[in-house]
Amino acid sequence: MRTALALCVLLLNVSVIQAKVTTAQGVRAARQLLRLEPAEPQFCGTPLAVAAAEARQDADPLARGLLASALERPDLDHQVVSPAGHFRLHYDMTGRDAVDTTDNDGNGIPDYVDLAAVVADSAWQLQIDVLGYHVPPVDGGIGGGNEVDVYLVDLGQGGNYGITYPISNGGSGPAYFKVDNDFSNTIFGGSFICPGYSGTRGTDALRVTLAHEIFHVIQFGYYQGSDGSWWQEASATWMEDVAYPQLDDYLQYVCSFLLNPSRALDSGIPSADFHSYGAAVFGHFLDQRYGRDVIRWIWEEHQRRQSARLDNFDSALRNYNGNVLGVEDVSDAGIEGAYCDLGVWSWFVGDRFREGFFEDGASYASEFTPAFPVAAKVALSDSGRLDHMSRAYIRLEPQLLPGGATIDTELARGRWRRQLLLISADSLKVRDVGTSGSISIWGWDAWDEVVLVLSNVDVVGIGYEYEVIVTYDPELNDGPAPNVLALESGVPNPFRPGQHDGTYISFELDQASTQTRLTLFAADGALVRRFDLGERSARRHSVRWDGTNEDGVLVAAGIYYTVLQADGVEARKRLAVIR
Fold first, then answer.
1. What is the DSSP string of 26-63?
2. Architecture of the domain delimited by 78-341
3. Is the dihedral of CA 339, 342, 344, 350 positive or negative?
4. N or C, which end of the chain is more exposed by having fewer CB within 10 Å?
């Protein structure tokens, strides 16, 4: 998580130290580095250790020596191997780094160390045995054996939970880490980032930190480059909640991500702000939208390519979409489709929470978005800029005004996606409205609010300009019939019966139908559920499916097919069910 100010100072001033190591600034940085002066609380993290390891390669001998000192392992008096044999824990019983020496079980090992060993083994079992991550590479016995070395030291004075250090240069390799020796400092559990969520202290902080840092060790076995620092922190913070969902420690960071939608997904400097930690939200989205394995597949892509480019996410998600969820429209696959879905999910948080999106969404911070002003027959506009993989929300509030509105967008360059949310107390429709052309909303007083989610889905670049023009027209009361018969996937998709109250399968009829039927089939063609809908007019319709078959029994997880039949015309879609 967060490391010492000394390392921050050194990295920020390494050129100064190289050129003027005898200056006061250089000497001060060196003294802090060697822990001869106390550091102030700050936000540096594991990425700085990675950056220091990389900088050491090209530094001059003097700076290289200082960096080597910063990365040097602590020299502690005692060590013990964890019960399962995966970790070697190093600790002191006297001095600055001493752990609480209480030993209630009389085994000669402080209880705090015993707990840390058991928790570490539990994290190993979860992340490697259950979730399928690779066993991390060994360090050749540097710390006394081939176990992963854990150092229990006083990090609280610098505002540090833990820090993981790469041992070797290069794209991947072994690592060791430090965690605090008691988590009793007031810096722990005193977060000011997101009001109402202060984070953990004591042994709860020990648990989430071990889950976090052990995942860093595993990550470095795949890829340890500093270009992936945001994802290292985002996915490690996500892993904390996978291991200890009851603690919800990650909630202390969420607002730093959700309240800054115009910042790029992969932006943030983990040594300077909490955006990367808050991006754990993206990990939760991937987990809940696609399944937990996709996080591991992304790390496998990083390993194959020895980089952390967003293209790697695209490859992992396209493979998942194509082979598991069976998304038919290629635009729904990959990082573009995922980021657009994230934009929709991120709207329904806080007091806008709805089932079918983030499981913890009611506890997330929601951004206040004022209603876009409207005037009859007058085109009003607003403009802005977005970085790559960022979004803006344009909210309209009909307030029972008759008619409707037309939305036009001018998108200067780059790749964009537009989605329209039609929201009322008991209904929700999500429409992909393409990348160009006017969006007409007829009879908009049927909705409490209308939200345009405007996403830039480029993987690089900043300052992409956009303009939104809204024209309110009191005469847009009755919309034209759809141009074609169309069937949409369910919302939500994937659908979790028992957790979601249902998935809503919408379709549009371009002409009235006297015999309308919606049928669900299993992947093997077996009939699951049939809805005989009789006569239907030429407009949009929706059917709720609660996940049960014709006998009222919840179906198993898998891919299902929805088939719409309307007077002999047929349309098909796929729907994923997760249990």
1. HHHHHHHHTTSS--------HHHHHHHHHHHHHS-HHH
2. Orthogonal Bundle (1.10)
3. negative
4. C
What DSSP string describes 183-234?
--STTTT---SBTTB----HHHHHHHHHHHHHHHHHHHHH---GGGHHHHHH
Fold for 486-577, please state it: Immunoglobulin-like (2.60.40)
Q: What percent of the chain has pLDDT over 70?
A: 88
Domain extent listing, the chain: 5-70, 78-341, 379-473, 486-577
Of 454, 390, 398, 457, the closest CA to residue 422 belongs to 398
HEC per residue, 78-121: EEEECCCCCEEEEEECCCCCECCCCCCCCCCCCHHHHHHHHHHH
CA pair distance 265, 275, nearest whole angstrom: 9
pLDDT of the residue at 483: 64
Mean pLDDT of 514-518: 92
Topology adopted by domain 379-473:
Jelly Rolls (2.60.120)
User: What pLDDT digit, counting tens, does each position of 439-487 carry?
Assistant: 999 889 889 999 999 999 999 999 999 999 999 999 987 666 666 788 8
Confidence (pTM):
0.79
Amino acid at 569: V
212 phi, psi to nearest 5 deg: -65, -55
Six-digit token string for 464: 């992409």
| 394: three-class secondary structure by DSSP | strand
Rounded mean pLDDT, 564-577 = 89
| The pairing of beta strand 540-545 with beta strand 162-166 | unpaired
Q: Which of 119, 116, 115, 209 is nearest to 162 (CA)?
A: 209
- Provide Rg for the chain, Cα atoms: 27
DSSP codes joined into one string, 318-341: HHHIIIII---SGGGSHHHHHHHH
Which of 35-49, 66-80, 337-351, 513-527 shows the lowest mean pLDDT across its residues? 35-49
Which position has the token pair 């209880």?
111
Name the pairing type of β-strands 513-522 and 464-473: unpaired
Q: Which amino acid is at 376?
A: A
Cβ(448)–Cβ(424) below 8 Å: yes
* Measured distance CA(395)–CA(448) in Å, rounded: 11
506-542 as b/e, with b when 16 or more CB fall inside 10 Å? Answer: bbbbeeebeebebbbbbeeeeebbeeebeebeeebbe
Burial 309-333 (b: 16+ CB within 10 A, else e): bbebbbbbbbebbeeebbbeeeebb
